[in-house]
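debug: dumping io for the single-chain case to check the tokenizer round-trip. Nothing else runs in this session.
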Amino acid sequence: MASIRKRSWTTSKGEVRQAWTLDFVDAAGNRDRRQFSTRREADAFRVEVEGQIRAGTFRPDSTKVTIREAAEAFLEYCQGRMERGERMTRTTFETYRGYISNHVLHPEHGISSLKLAQLTSGQVGRFRDSLRSAGVSVPTTRKILSTLQGVLEHAKARDLLAVNAAKGTKVIGRRDEDSKKITPPSKAELQALLAVAPPPLRRRILFSAATGVRASELYALRWRHVDFTAGEVRIETRVDRHRQEDTTKTEAGVRTIPLASPIVAMLKAWRLESGYSRDGDLIFPNSRGRYCSHSNMGTKEFRPAREAAGLPNLNWHSLRHFAVSCWIEQGLSAKTVQTFAGHTSLQITWDRYGHLWPSEDHRRAMDAIAKELFR
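debug: decoded output
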């Protein structure tokens, strides 16, 4: 039960002041008191807090903690996880920190000064709109809101919030702004690239184009991950741009991929030739047996090769798309493609590659309908 009373007092200068005090007890039996300048403000807050207490969503600190403070606490939590090696890479941490400092806490379109209690779904929607008005792309806006959702989920875990206002916020852009349909390189283009690639780069291209592994997974592979008898490779870890090894991007990233016989033969030959051939050694290391820098490889090897092949717009991730397109071409099911690609859901696989599945069944169905209509 909440009660409001008028309070009057005299300052040290002899000035008479008055305010309205709201006393209430939350669902846990904790007594709280808030002071307001007018009776109207006190009544408005009373109605709001009584509704929250009845719904079980009242959190006393939500009116005191700002978004900035919640974001800083979230980053501190992420940094601790990173230092302890608890599924938080340095790259992920720096990505979170960038989105928070550059957007969530931005002095103009950010929301740093808002209290947690003020952050409603409508307020999150206005933040989204301000990001779009500032020229932030649809994919980046989605990532920023996902980071904000993480901040609020952490605040919720600290019992500062009962509801995550960022959940369910949609970002809708123009049709030409959303994710583009993936167009994998053709076999002729890949052959042109292989024809000009030096042997070390050629091996990495062949392996990536055959297995669809991500670059971060490629450079973390060790010889113990390859079963030469069964003809398969086990993906278990990845390495980021800071050369820190961690688990795969998601649990679905841990997977076993069959290897074609020519790829097995290539790996056997390379292991005999390589100076780093023990089970624990990296398969594709740098000259000192350590993690290869993907950015350096791109600049010094891949970019010159693609230019020489007349493919200036080809990027390394296109090799993953090539592998997936070949699996689809050979009739593998969508579920199998999802497993080999390491996608967390079948929906992701279908959203990205659904247009590559043959449409002969669709044509046959339309032909059958047409025959019925026009006979």
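debug: round-trip ok. Residues 289 and 312 are 30 Å apart (CA to CA).
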